[in-house]
Amino acid sequence: MLSCEDATLLVSIKAFRKLKMMERIQLRLHLLACVYCKRFDKQNHLIDHGINELLKNGHSHLECMPTEKKEALQRAIDQTIDR
Amino acid sequence: MSKTHKYECDPHCWVDAYADELFRFTFSKINNREQAEDIVQETFFSALKNLDSFRRDCTEKTWLYNILRNKITDYYRKNTRTVLEGDSTNKIDDEHFYQRFFRSDGMYIGHWKAESSPQEWDIPADQELLSKEFMAFLEDCLSYLPDKQAEVFRLKNMEDFSSDEICKELSVSASNLWVLVHRAKLQLRECLEKKGISNA
Fold first, then answer.
1. Is residue B194 within 8 angstroms of chain A, CB to CB?
2. Record: contact B27-A63, CB cut-off 8 A
3. ipTM of the prediction
4. Spelled out in words, what is the top-level CATH class assigned to the domain B118-199?
């Protein structure tokens, strides 16, 4: 039977490549017996979903540059123009 | 006959008008707040230096975006090199990495250590809409990942690269790619749990 280390490897990479038949069977058997890896599998799904949302749809629309940075930047630009 | 429209350009208004928008665009591409701020700053100064080359046949916003895109490409080039050069620096961690999560001896070798084993999260696995809190935690945890691991997810999710293409881009073998992904997932999960996601 797979160790948890091997099982979590298969869980981690299944979004990247299709598992081979033998790997699928071994993983399924392991997940039936191991509550921790079953949780890892569920949580991995959420993480994949979240990463996809974050990277595909961009970050929060409320993200801004810090005000003090913007003020300093505008001052620097103004000084450069006036020089 | 209509004359071609000439667009105006006023650097005195740039920061107010475009800083946040350019920052968001950059941050979504490189996932590093400070670097994103630096790149936006460099973009403005580069534009300022090359004001003469602004031909006014496009808006200043389009022009600034063009400069910004070049800066982001430069950043990737530089960063990919750093990522590749950083290859050997993780060797010591390598030996101990898996020991943080899995037992290294005894009858249950390779099985979860009690202190690292996944705890129950109060989020249904099939949840379509993830909470803002979860996304904020995940975003934070992603920023802690080593560059090369984070790059794998960027290439897959933003560039739609296949595994083969990712291997080529990062100059790693397929088995090394799986190790990178495995490590990233173990770390992300642990990071989320440490932030208290199980009680979210």
1. no
2. yes
3. 0.75
4. mainly alpha
